[in-house]
Design goal:
This protein has about 325 residues and is of the alpha/beta class. Helix content is about 30%, strand content about 25%. Pfam families: ADH_N, ADH_zinc_N.
Length: about 325
Amino acid sequence: MQSTAIHIHRHGDPDVLEGVQVDVPPPAAGEIRIRQSAIGLNFADIYQRKGAHGPHAPTPFPITLGAQGAGVVEALGTGVTGWRVGQSVAYFHPGAYQAVRNVPATRVLALPSGISEEQAGANLLRGLTAEYLLRRLYVVQPGDAVLVHAAAGGMGVLLSQWARALGATVIGTVGSAAKADVALAHGCHHVIDYRREDFVARTLALTGGEGVAVVYDAVGKDVFVPSLACLRQLGMAINYGTASGDVEGLDLQLLHAKSLSVCRPTLRSFIATPADLQRSAAAFFAAVDSGQLRLEVGSRYALADVQQAHRDLEGRATTGAPVLVP
């Protein structure tokens, strides 16, 4: 059978994204064929489109971007058990920008009844990322103060809600009054408009001069080094995205006085095994089921409109978790 897919034949701006028709063979042994109803749109896709260095394995052109989606099981390969045709599922596996595709069964997740395919397609990568950021890389404790940059974005709203549910005081930064309202409605106790205020001074004021336990930074170049001044002793700064550019040439002496830690992690390391993926997803789904997290879908784009979707996401014109709809 054939399916619509989005390929790139070179790295570059959004205009390198090209719609094509590709052959989809029957699922091989150990694979599941999924007809997608929602495909996640993430900044990681932009990094890969541009050829920016990151966790992406070297891949020959043409490249199909994306790593997460959701839909229904359409066929099962030999040896695949525990799944049924028509079942709602989500997955994390490279090559998501394609309407129908085969995915290793070990990377597929059964969706609980309370989570729709669209919610999962838009939020799975972000939810799994929030899980390891809050529960494993730095274990948020009741009473901690945390700083979340880009608090109105798709990752920011999940981090802020979940950190608050874990007992933290959540300080978020945003770039407009409208985004401040979004952040306040999604877990932040305090919101700083970085275009109008010095976020370092304001963060220190809000914490009585002590600073926060951890900084969650998806912005990178523009905020990472100043964020170190927001940390308390033994604090940790986590740069998990680089929307404003890579952090380069960090002076380690900036960490010395307060024995600070910095980290540049990637989700793939934390869900590398099937067991890790299942455990992380179970924790994420449980947080949704308990009401700690509200999964929302931001802007919706037809798969054919992927170029505009990338322009909007790259230009920070989206709020929440955008999604591509095949």
